[in-house]
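Make up an example, fold above all:
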Amino acid sequence: MARSRPRVWLVAACAAVLLWASVAQLVAVGRLLLQFGPAGDADPSPPPSVLPPPRIYKSNGYLKISCNGGLNQMRSEICDMVAVARLLNLTMVVPELDKRSFWADQSNFGDIFDVRHFIDSLRDEVHIIKQLPERLGPSDSDIIEMPPVSWSDEKYYLHQILPLFSKYSAIHFNKTDARLANNGISTELQLLRCRVNFHALKFTPQIEGLGNKLVHKLRARGSFVALHLRYEMDMLAFSGCNHGLSLEEAEELKKMRYAYPWWRDKEIDSQAKRSQGLCPLTPEETSLVLKALGFQKDSLIYIAAGEIYGGDRRLEPLRSAFPKLVRKEMLLDSEVLRQFQNHSSQMAALDFIVSTASDVFIPTFDGNMAKLVEGHRRFLGFRRSVVLDRRKLVELLDLYTNKTISWDNFASSVQEAHKSRVAQPSCRRKLENRPKEEDYFYANPHECLVNSSLCS
């Protein structure tokens, strides 16, 4: 019996440590929720009139960043870089948005996000300025321009980036996509990433106002589904997915892929990608899947997407199955929308607001918008998001269209495959040295959710 006492004591000690860690993380998440409340709903409450006290620290230098990609990719990049600035005690410059990619959107940060709110709401973490001091010009030798290494942890920034400030006054990160790891980051920085994402990156009053107007118009008609139908020209060209397209359409997309040098993959086996579940569902496939999942003909469905490739002709099968299919262009006056046209990121912001507020969210491809909306909906109380298993769906769709299985067999199989595909409290799946394949932080930021203690 005497021998067992040390073992019992060790078990008790370990249990106490685990309990303390869980309580500490719950307190941290609770502080995030109490101080800033849940993420903004369709009708966000006004920001508090009392600003947090500024954090006083000796700045090691300036961090300038140029984001790349679409709106939601840039959103995650900004969150990451605020965390990096905090880690390294840097002064951050208001981010530059991508103006050179496929979308050619000339929007500045202030055209999409509330700059004053961004600066003020983070003043107790990072000092943010609107531009570099005049003495640091674009050709100044006191500035180094570079991309940080993808999926890096805190050690990389502390040991590889911070020492550069002994030689340079400022660093310009000219690419910022996926430059901070999903996992292995301190809880404090993970919570800061969430704080930036859910609270500091607030849309401008103009975008919020119009987004809320869309939500009100939809809710006046009843409950609604936000369908992120990622069947746009850029996605099809980039992915090389041409299932259901004509030879002329496939060739048009291939030419576009070759026209953009930063799209590295040129020759793509469309059939192989589709069978692996790596292609967005077509509108025809989407209509069958929605019906199989039990959505009725009178379901109100909002298409949260840009211009669908093939236009109304391609949308016809989906509209025939669900006549109450709507887009923002059908709900708002053309004059009201005119200020946002030719600004794809501002239009995407409207879709983001509607998607986070919808009764159900269903993306047909797991791109950046799908992942960030899923994460926001988790933070808002695990609102229903259906994450489609495209690999399984392609297999079932082909069996059904080839008349190998009946409709009843197809529908029951689709429902069975998606019983556990609704976003719910869970821990991110981690894969050692395979960050692209593991669960994305922004799709399930479990450190910032009420179930955080389960994932300690």
